[in-house]
Amino acid sequence: MAFAEPVTLRGQHVLLEPLAPAHAAEAHAAAQDGEIWKHWYTTVPAPDKAGAEIARRLDLQAKGSMLPFAVRDARGGFAGMTTYMNIDAGNRRVEIGSTWYRASVQRTGLNTEAKLLLLGHAFDRLRCIAVEFRTHWFNFQSRAAIARLGAKQDGVLRNHMVAPNGTLRDTVVFSILQSEWPTVQAHLRYQLDKPRA
Fold it and tell me: How far apart, in whole angstroms, are the C-alpha atoms of residue 193 and residue 77?
């Protein structure tokens, strides 16, 4: 049995279901909302590449290094994708990443609850000792969102990788430790319960 098996995670604002090739048409439409693939510092697939991106993620799942999810909003609409990635079963660590959401659901409770569900499954079911988050130095929106979750910045991997456009990416690394999970969980529940401005 693999360390991280496909699973469906359900909350009030979000449903995370195992990613499948059948999601390609919905992903194509969602990626067009806000043209988010045009942000140079992200790796969101262009609408016509949605099927290929799903295939890439499923190939990594078959190799045991990724567990990809389709993300649906409260009404059942396709909102984006997220994953457990860089799965390290021996050290009981995962990274939550390769996440993108259509523009119309950003800055709603959807991401907060998605992360609450993913972190809960990682710490409570998979018994992870740490969960990582990584983002581009210039993705200030993502960096702020990760910090709002309660993750702490571990450091910056300078010239960590070559981006698709040929530039060098500095990667900001954050993590939440198993011992921090109860406090982070309380914080995320509070964030979901408080009225949004």
Answer: 22
